[in-house]
Amino acid sequence: MAYLNDHYLKLKAGYLFPEIGRRVKAFTDGNPEAARRLIRCGIGDVTEPLPPAVIEALHRAVDEMAQRGSFRGYGPEQGYEFLRAAIARHDFRDKGLEIADDEIFVSDGSKCDCGNILDILGPQNKIAISDPVYPVYVDTNVMAGHTGAADETGAYAGLVYLPGTPANGFIPDPPVEAVDLIYLCSPNNPTGAAATRGQLSAWVDYARKHRAIILFDAAYEAYISDPAIPHSIYEIPGARECAIEFRSFSKNGGFTGLRCAFTVVPKSLLASTADGKFTPLHPLWHRRMSTKFNGVSYPVQRGAEALYSTEGQKQVRQLIDHYLGNAKVLLAGAKAAGLTVYGGVNAPYLWAQTPQGVTSWVAFDKILHQANVVITPGSGFGSKGEGYFRISAFNSRANAEEVARRLPALRW
Ligand code: MLT
User: Fold this and answer.
1) Mutate to test the pocket of ligand 1, among 45, 47, 255 (most ligand atoms within 8 A of CB)
2) How far, CA to CA in Å, does 197 sit from each of 129, 268, 324?
3) Which of 8, 229, 259, 263 measures 20 to 30 Å from 62, CA to CA?
């Protein structure tokens, strides 16, 4: 007899975005006119083509693969040296942050890494997450058996939920109790909030005091427009001893379809064995990647490297400015609709409060049916997301402007 992983049966109906897709399909199948007018501001997927520097690098790499002399088979599981060196230099050392090339692990996505990192962390860890939260942090812990069952609000037994509210700017303070692993996402998905240096310092102090580890998701760091906001957790002194950072090329270089990201595991980061010996995590992650991963394809890594060229950097800036420009347009539209709205300044997401008494899914339906716009219901990100919805700024400018025109016409 074969047994399944019972923990999967604790998961809620479906991952949020497939569920949204199902509802949208059910609506548009019977409404061809609405289907034609439909504008998607739901999933945070990029819409603009890849930067020309990336396209050129991809073409060159494919041509290399076509010749016996320059063909490449398996690459290093941790990423090619050329890309690890470019990342460590441009994203960290040029900014005064001490990160070595071999502390960078290239992967096929931050979502994957956020889930996979649990392979090297013990099942006895007490885990803290913000609420609302990117659902992957919760679901991967449920799958790994780190939680009990969900209650009627969707909260899983065993997790420590830290509410993100307007009062704390959607960045929770460290709890009084001791936890072992903390997921922080800044700029935040879904709220668009960005943690200040003071807030991150409080978390680093907490983690060091409790010998906890911060899993810092910085997939949206390129969207930070306030110069006072840190782009990396390693800007906070002491973070090399208590934090792993996840970064992605999806949202800066438009790589959601190409797949390339990286995780920083400092060699100075230790965690305890079951019998209390503090041991580095770096060799464990190295071992995990060597065993379960064969690396990102060579052409894609060349494409990612091109993002760091002078031309590539300019083109990334144009992409970010485009999406942040959309966020500005959407922010104005949401305000004109009388909504209380957060985010959209240091992040490609707006976090809007539904009018009094309207639940997130009712708001989703109203906006879909009346405005033919897809948003993401806040309750899909946790119980504290109830009463909110997320608007993604990943779109064409024309679509962002059209959404901004349609929102004020909503009848709540
Ligand atoms: C989102 O919409 O939250 C993102 O697309 C999720 C992701 O990047 O995986």
Assistant:
1) 45
2) 19, 22, 22
3) 263
